[in-house]
Amino acid sequence: MLDPQQVLKKYFGYDSFRPGQREIIEKVFQGKNVLAVMPTGGGKSLCYQIPALMIPGATVVISPLISLMKDQVDSMREYGIPAAALNSSTAQEDVNPILRACYEGKIKLLYVTPERMEMDYFRYQLNFLEVNLVAIDEAHCISQWGHDFRPAYRKLKDGINALHTHPNVLALTATATKAVREDIGQQLDISEENFVITSFERKNLHFKLVNAPKNSRAYIVNYLKQHRGEAGIIYSNTRKKVEGLTEFLRREGFNVAAYHAGMSNEERAQVQDDFQYDRIPLIVATNAFGMGIDKSNVRFVLHANSAKNLEAYYQEAGRAGRDGLESEAVMLFHPSDLRQFRWFIDNSEADESYRQVQYQKLQTISDYANTDECLQQFIVRYFGQDCPPCGKCSNCLNSGDFQDVTAEAQAIIGMVYDLDGRYGKRIVAQAVTGSKVKKISEIGADECVHYGLLKGKKQADVSSLVDYLVSKGYLQLVGDCYPLVHVTNRGWDVLDGKARVKRRQEVKREQLAETGG
Ligand code: ADP
Ligand code: ZN
To answer: How far apart are CA 501 and CA 471, in angstroms?
Structure first.
């Protein structure tokens, strides 16, 4: 019989385990209930897929989203692993054949929603199978302390207890604060010595944020010149932009290839291969590029457009420096990208609670772009862990002076107050800069006390300061689809002259980014 390492190689083609994977798999084999906390992209799936292939009977995988399930099952099949999903989109006549295939050992992994586990009839059906492991993906959904609480998760324990095989449980999540971890442990009978928590910190990554560069292409060319001969990935957010940027960089003399989902399978495989074997050092890609990329010596990942959430960003940025050598993760942040993402969420057909989470995640990207704290620390904290300031990100290295922006902050906060929290960022910025657009007079903003107090300032700069005040908690965005700006208690202190607001000089920020320092 093969051991886990050999299974890793045979089915997945990887030579070694990522941090935490071996320990988790070993504990599962020892019959322990285990909680695995690992960063997104850290390789959680393998932790149950490998045992599933090695133990007799079937493994049930609880997964919250049908789309996620579908991706997983498709990718399992690509690896030649028999897997199937049962959810509300499964045709009724397909259910029994799938269960039969599980019974016969032809399917090793069965993905189901937590809601299905609640159904008595499904529990009855499941009891014909030999279920020896239940893997619970996105296990933080079990906890009201988590950000995605889902009632059906809370009932999983009953569903698992109803199985005559008394399967082991492996709970997995990328986000778990201490409270959530304890909750998961209690709910699923996992003792603390079986919590395997890998660190989210990536010590060899230098994060760099460039806020609204005046000319992104010039920045990129300059950056690439300083990183000649290194392998790197440049992410952009649409196929069209990927193609445009690729063309442009070629004309500038760089050896670069494009990658996006609109290309044929052969073309994509070719590009991936050329990159893997160092024939082409630079790839410009949409987020379609990544799955299955296992290149260890990527020296930088540059996001020409901001990612749509921090999970995705960290996963993509994390493709740099897998070999442990010093590497860079750069993001060029344009507020307009967020407007585009927002538009997509506004117009999506997903349910309300899902959209709400997406809006929150967008806000986190804006906060990331506006924070002046350590970027690594910001990300690690977002994932519910902590680490010391890294000393190498663009914020840690920014020695730019803090500028006192209290007067501007007061004007903006005052304007928000004048507007009674009934308007969004754009109106606030227009009103405080004394804009003459029709809407402003229509709503009577031009008669407010703080109207035009920042006349002469660029609206984009004022907008950026509004974002900064939000990221610092002086202002707050309320509502999802059309968020309105509200004043917080901290904001009141500024308005009352009890607190001062400081911000690093924007100029220095930009210079720092452009000289690559
Ligand atoms: P997560 O669920 O933790 O976000 P995944 O399980 O989707 O992460 O894994 C992310 C990527 O890492 C996948 O492409 C996977 O094939 C790859 N991966 C997982 N384990 C390893 C490993 N030991 N070596 C190389 N790549 C791995
Ligand atoms: Zn730092």
So the answer is: 12
CA of 408 to the centre of ligand 2 (A): 27
* Distance of alpha carbon 432 from alpha carbon 453, whole angstroms: 6
* Whole-structure pTM value: 0.71
Tokens read off for 289: 């590029």
Mind listing the pLDDT tens digit for each residue in 325-367? 999 999 999 888 888 888 888 888 877 777 887 888 888 999 9
Output the 3-class SS for 316-382.
Answer: HHCCCCCCCCCEEEEEEECHHHHHHHHHHHHCCCCCHHHHHHHHHHHHHHHHHHHCCCCHHHHHHHH
Question: Pairing state of beta strands 484-487 and 475-478?
Answer: antiparallel
Q: For the segment 409-468, what is each residue's pLDDT rounded down to a tens digit? A: 999 999 999 999 899 999 999 999 999 999 999 999 999 999 999 999 998 889 989 989
Closest listed residue to residue 90, CA positions, set 63, 112, 106: 112
Do 53 and 132 meet the contact criterion of CB atoms below 8 Å apart? no
Is the Cβ atom of 415 under 6 angstroms away from ligand 1? no
CB neighbour list of residue 178: distance below 8 Å, 6 or more residues apart: 384
Residue 472 CA to residue 449 CA, distance in Å, equals 24
Name residues with Cβ closer than 5 Å to ligand 2, which is an ion.
374, 376, 389-390, 393, 396
Distance 268 CA to ligand 2 centre (A): 35
Instruction: Judge if the beta carbon of residue 18 lies within 6 A of ligand 1.
Output: yes
What are 463's strand-pairing partners? none
Q: How far apart are CA 365 and CA 310, in angstroms?
A: 6
Of 342, 407, 341, 395, nearest to 369 (Cα)? 395
Structure ipTM: 0.97
Give the three-state DSSP class for 180: helix
